[in-house]
Design goal:
Layout: H1 12-59, H2 64-69, H3 76-84, H4 90-95, H5 98-102, H6 109-129, H7 142-157, H8 161-181, H9 188-193, H10 196-218, H11 221-233, H12 239-248, H13 250-260, H14 267-270, H15 276-283, H16 298-310, E1 312-315, H17 323-336, E2 342-347, H18 352-362, E3 367-369, H19 375-385, E4 387-392, H20 393-396, E5 408-412, H21 423-432, E6 439-443, H22 452-460, H23 465-468, H24 479-486, E7 490-491, H25 495-498, E8 505-512, H26 516-528, H27 531-536, H28 546-560, E9 564-569, H29 572-581, E10 587-590, H30 596-608, E11 613-618, H31 619-622, E12 633-636, H32 643-653, E13 662-669, H33 673-692, H34 697-700, H35 709-727
Parallel strand pairs: 1-6, 1-7, 2-4, 2-5, 3-4, 5-6, 8-13, 9-11, 9-12, 10-11, 12-13
Helix pairs in contact: 1-6, 1-7, 1-8, 1-10, 1-11, 7-11, 7-12, 7-13, 8-10, 8-11, 12-13, 15-16, 16-17
Length: 728
């Protein structure tokens, strides 16, 4: 049945169209409802825990602060009366009601009101400035657990839930009014009883509903909304698993908390204290995050904007602040904004695989690996398809980079090219000098290792107008003048300045490739069916071990930043190899053979050592029962059979008393048992989610979520033997 103009569907056809619209609107409202409920729960739990920290803050404030707040209106005699009544802190004054304060001899109604008002003013100031820290040692505290579980629900939903919520809001806004306005079209009787003006409005609204539904069908909007609701409904985890997940992914939890609770951020710290005029320019720079699959902290988003707005810059953030993510955000923006298709990343060989995995796992960009036998093919594919070409400093010298416009060149660990006379620096400089090269981004946590001339030379490699303006004489005597001169092209933030919460855990999987001798040792171990030898194979030839090389780099960088390092392995042989590689500079190893009192003496020596120190520990010994909070860098020499064992070891450093964010580097060998171990861990986790999260299957099918260590080892050995046989 059609309308009087013969074109507008009326009756059954219109009714079907409106029902489809209401169905889609219902899906959008479900997403918004679950999202709002999850956010409200986080804010509620945060408010309860924040009050705990405010109370602790006020409990430590002496009564004399009240006199300062009231500008001397509270007399000394009043403070003495409070102390005589057993009220010795601002917190106790706040807890007491004005009526109770008036019962104290010498305190009248007006003074009681002044005291209570001043305590409230201090409480509000504390609430704005106190850092709420989720304490991993407070797992028995319901207030801490409530916040962890509330955050866990949103973390499980993933970073794409924000896009789904935005889509749901857009869908709801597009449909709500039009569905109501178009309602008369569902009934032929209502249609003809409506006046001409209402029919005209209904006709236009029905047309918009039809267009909205067509667009939603083309973009799979319903599928996105349904998946978002499923993701929001599946959490949170039980308390123990939520806590374990928090310890593994604390950075994600704090990122979500900051956004949901709208926590204030120290803008100057996040912006590296750069001049106001530059900071305003950077803030105005758009940042399209649509191609990212990770949420950015505020300072990380600013770093990406800095790279985009200033075009040729050096980001020298302290290690562990996510320089790779900031670079990836800048690359993703340029691609999403249509400002380029070809990007180049140059890095040391030790982080090549990390870059590939970060690009593939945290963005929608395509990575091309220009390293090894297939590098020429990778370059050709990159030239034709676009994406991110990832290569190393040494390979770059022999690589023929096509004359395509380079939207951005990223040099990671840029201290590798601080000497412009080296061949690697020359090869990079030739690309930067190309007229078609746009943005240039250098990344390094150690822009100056020995003297300021290194820093100046590194900035010169940017070949930017800002860097050229830095006079050669600047910095010889006046460091402030040097910082002012380099501010337009240099940004650095330090961990304590931008990470005010309880130091979380940053996990970095350090993927390395076998040397020829290590690969031979690995193949022998697989042929023998020796699972433990397979896991130790990357250390078979210490002189050529890629894992050992990366470990030395991590220790050296920690030394530059005065950070303490604990190195864990399950194998005494590996610890001995590491100790020899560090040339006796490490304490330990701390093993099961060391008596308990001597273990603590080793830990005490490690803790008391001024500045940088390294402790070697067997993971089952150092991972349980000892406090290693002096360490802020943890190196895992190989993945363990149990993720919980790794989490326990990390928890030795990530606990009360830790003053820095804990960085965990897990050394992994590509094309080896390490890959299989991580894959099985992932499958095991997915199986648990499917069978045990919300059902009783875990009780009836325990093997779905638990595999014994010997059985796991047997499976891996058999799989590796088959894989290598097929390769051969």
């Amino acid at each position: 049945m059609t309308a009087d103009d013969g074109r507008t569907p009326v009756g059954a056809r219109a009714g079907a169209l409106l029902r489809a619209g209401h169905d889609l609107l219902g899906a959008a409202r479900s997403v918004l409802r679950e999202h709002d409920a999850a956010h409200a729960e986080v804010r509620r739990a945060y408010g309860v825990l924040a009050e705990v920290f405010v109370q602790k803050e006020l409990a430590g404030l002496p009564l004399t602060v009240l006199r300062d707040v009231t500008r001397g209106q509270v007399r000394e005699a009043t403070l003495q009366a409070l102390e005589a009544a057993g009220i010795g802190s601002v917190g106790r004054v706040r807890e007491a009601q004005p009526y109770a304060l008036r019962q104290i001899p010498g305190i009248g109604a007006q003074t009681a009101g002044q005291l209570h008002g001043a305590a409230g003013q201090l409480a509000r100031a504390a609430a704005e400035s106190v850092a709420v820290r989720i304490d991993v040692d407070a797992q028995g505290d319901d207030r801490h657990t409530a916040l962890v579980r509330a955050l866990n629900r949103l973390v499980l939903a993933g970073p794409h839930s924000a896009e789904a919520v935005a889509l749901a809001r857009k869908t709801a806004e597009a449909l709500e009014d039009d569905l109501h306005t178009a309602a008369p079209a569902a009934s032929r009787t209502q249609w003809f009883l409506a006046g001409r003006r209402r029919r005209d409005l209904a006709r236009a609204a029905l047309l918009r509903v039809r267009e909205a539904l067509a667009q939603a069908a083309a973009e799979d909007v319903r599928m996105t909304l349904d998946q978002a609701v499923t993701d929001l409904l599946r959490g949170p985890e039980p308390a123990d698993r939520a806590w374990l997940d928090f310890q593994v992914r604390a950075a994600e939890y704090y990122t979500v908390l900051g956004k949901v609770a709208d926590l204030p951020e120290d803008r100057e710290s996040a912006e590296g204290y750069i001049p106001t005029s530059i900071a305003e320019e950077v803030r105005a720079q758009p940042l399209d995050e649509s191609l990212l699959q990770v949420s950015l902290r505020g300072y990380q988003a600013f770093g990406a904007r800095f790279a985009l707005a200033r075009r040729r810059v050096l980001i020298g953030d302290e290690m562990g602040l996510g320089k790779t993510i900031q670079a990836l955000a800048a690359l993703a923006h340029l691609r999403a904004a249509g400002e380029g298709r070809h990007f180049l990343v140059v890095c040391p060989v030790g982080v090549l695989l990390n870059w590939i995995r970060e690009i593939e796992g945290r963005s929608s960009l395509v990575a091309h690996r220009a390293h090894g036998p297939g590098r020429s093919g990778a370059v050709r594919a990159w030239e034709a398809e676009g994406g991110v070409l990832v290569t190393t400093y040494d390979v770059l010298r022999a690589l023929d980079i096509p004359k395509v416009p380079l939207a951005m060149v990223v040099a990671d660990e840029a201290q590798y090219v601080k000497n412009p006379r080296t061949q690697r620096a020359g090869a990079l400089a030739a690309l930067i000098r190309r007229p078609s090269t746009g943005h240039v981004l250098f990344l390094t946590g150690t822009p100056m290792e020995n003297h300021v001339a290194e820093f100046r030379a590194l900035l010169g490699q940017l070949q930017s107008p800002d860097a050229r303006k830095v006079p050669y004489t600047v910095g010889t005597r006046d460091s402030r003048a040097f910082r002012a001169a380099v501010a337009p092209c240099y940004l650095r933030r330090n961990q304590p300045d931008v990470l005010g919460e309880l130091p979380g855990v940053i996990h970095a999987d350090e993927w390395e490739e076998f040397s020829d001798s290590d690969r031979a040792a690995y193949r022998r171990a697989v042929g023998e069916g020796n699972f433990m030898a397979m896991r130790r194979a990357p250390y078979a030839d210490p002189a050529r071990s890629a894992k050992l090389h990366r470990l030395r780099e991590l220790v050296a960088e920690a030394a530059v930043n005065d950070l303490k390092v604990v190195v864990f392995s399950g194998f005494l042989e590996v610890l001995a190899t590491v100790g020899a590689a560090l040339e006796g500079a490490a304490l330990g190893p701390l093993t099961g053979a060391v008596p308990a009192d001597e273990r603590q003496a080793l830990v005490d020596e490690f803790t008391a050592a001024p500045g940088h120190a390294v402790l070697l520990a067997q993971i089952r010994t150092g991972g349980t029962g000892l406090n290693l909070q002096a360490a802020s860098v943890v190196v895992l020499c190989e993945p363990q059979l149990s993720p919980a064992l790794e989490a326990q070891a990390v928890a030795r450093a990530h606990r009360m008393g830790q003053v820095r964010r804990v960085q965990v580097h897990r050394l992994l060998a590509a094309d080896s048992v390490d890959v299989r171990l991580l894959e099985l861990h992932r499958v095991k986790q997915e199986e648990f989610d499917s069978y045990a999260r919300r059902s009783e299957v875990a009780e009836t099918v325990p093997e779905a979520v638990d595999v014994s260590d010997p059985e796991l080892a047997r499976r891996i050995v058999e799989d590796e033997q088959l894989r290598l046989a097929l390769q051969a």
